[in-house]
C-alpha cells in the first residue's frame, strides 16, 4: 500500500513540475534575443571524387558522429540569423565491390563554419523551421605531406524546436551538407561532397 502511495505521490509531483515548465507565459516574458544551442548527431557517409586531387581514385567518407554549437540571433519571431561551428571526426575508406574488402586510408577531421538563416513558424512552445547556411568547410586528413584544405560549403534542412519554458528547449534537425571538392570550373557539381545528417541539441535562450 505504501509503495502505491509513493508512486502516486511521485506521479503527482512530476505532473505539477511539468505543468509549471510547460505553462504559457506572457509574450513579453517569452521575448529573447539570443539562442545558444550545443548539439550532437550523426552524419551519413559521402564520397570524395578523384577530381578533388587528394587520392588517385574515388574514396568514401565514413559515416560517424558529429558535434558543434549554434549561436542564433533573434531578428523577428519568424526569422533568425545564426552562426554554426561543427566537427565530424571520420575516416577516408577505400570502397570495395559488393562483399569485397574495404580498408581505412586515413583519419580526417571535417570542420565547418557557416552563417545560417532560419525561418520558423508556430506559436507557443513548438516551432517548426527551415534553415539554410553558407560558409566554409576544412578537410584535415592525417596523411604525411598532405595539407588541410578549406572549401566553400552550404547546407539546407529543417526541424522543430520544442521549448519547455521561455529560456530552455530542445532542437531536432536534419540537413544536407554540400562541400565544393571538385577542382573543375563548375562551382556546383555531382562530383562534390554531399552528406546527410541528423542532430539534437539543447536550446538556452537569453
Detailed description of the structure:
Strand 7 and strand 8 (149-165) form a beta hairpin. An 8-stranded antiparallel barrel has the order 1-4-5-6-7-8-9-10. It has 2 helices and 10 strands, in the order H-H-E-E-E-E-E-E-E-E-E-E. The chain has helices at 2-22, 27-30; strands at residues 34-43, 46-48, 59-61, 64-76, 79-94, 103-120, 126-141, 149-165, 168-179, 193-205. The N and C termini lie far apart (46 Å). The longest helix is centred in the N-terminal third of the chain and has 21 residues, at 2-22. Helices cover 12% and strands 59% of the residues. The model is unreliable at 1-29 (pLDDT under 50). The radius of gyration is 22 Å and the shape is elongated. It is mainly β and 206 residues long.
**Low confidence ranges:** 1-29
> Which series of helices and strands comes N to C?
HHEEEEEEEEEE
Shape verdict:
elongated
Please, what is the average pLDDT? 83
What is the alpha-carbon Rg in Å? 22 Å
Indicate the percent of residues in helices.
10-25%
Per DSSP, the total helix count is 2
Termini Cα gap: 46 Å
Q: How many DSSP-defined strands? A: 10
Class computed from helices, strands and strand pairing:
mainly beta
Largest sheet: 8 strands, antiparallel, barrel
Strand order of the largest sheet: 1-4-5-6-7-8-9-10
Strand content: over 45%
